[in-house]
Write a structure and sequence with these properties.
Length: about 260
Amino acid sequence: MLKEVSATRYITPMREGGSLPGLVEADDLETYVMKFTGAGQGRKTLVAEVVCGELARRLGLRVPGLVAIGLDPVIGLGEPDQEVQELLKSSGGLNLGMDFLSRAIGFDALAHRVSREEAGKVVWFDALVNNVDRSWRNPNMLVRDGDLWLIDHGATMIWHHNWPGAQASAARHYDASDHALAPFDPDIAAAARELGPRVTPDLLAEVTAAIPDAWLTDEPGFDSADALRQAYAEPLLARAATVHERIRTVREGTK
């Protein structure tokens, strides 16, 4: 399970994100970027962040640490911004926090170099989780002290928005022609050889166990949180073995 903390102060909204994440302080005296159950796609976005973030970390990719943040809606009463106030009031209970990476700057392919090896791992991982939001227009990557960090995985695993069609959706190819790291000639084959065998049932069970039960309740078609956790694991396990064969790139067509 994720570490649980409680929000003590809402600092400011971060308007770069469409779901209006905010910077908050918590009772462990740390600062987090907080994403809310009351925003956008709600708790499914937070589930995607947990599954992808924890999986990426175990595969050796850099992602901010994650925590579950308890929010008392009373915090929103003093907010002058009506949109922020409504968001805080509608997000009582557990929300998601990501470590705030101070000194980090947004990734720019013209300013930062990425090795073929690292680019391949990121593209392969994004194909695994079907990340449709890592294009050159919106890289969702940060650079700190020369290291590349992956952020914002809410727009992944689109099959969890339609579970009856999940198997068919998860079997589709992944279009990486617009990927932010495509210019670096990513070595996808090497990434598949290294990372694919590491995506095992045990690893996925560990990753999905981090999802708070509160975000898995009342999902139509599932009688328990653990059954839903298994549903998240199954497409990822199936994709890990062969998704590299269905990655479409600019230079090579289908790779």
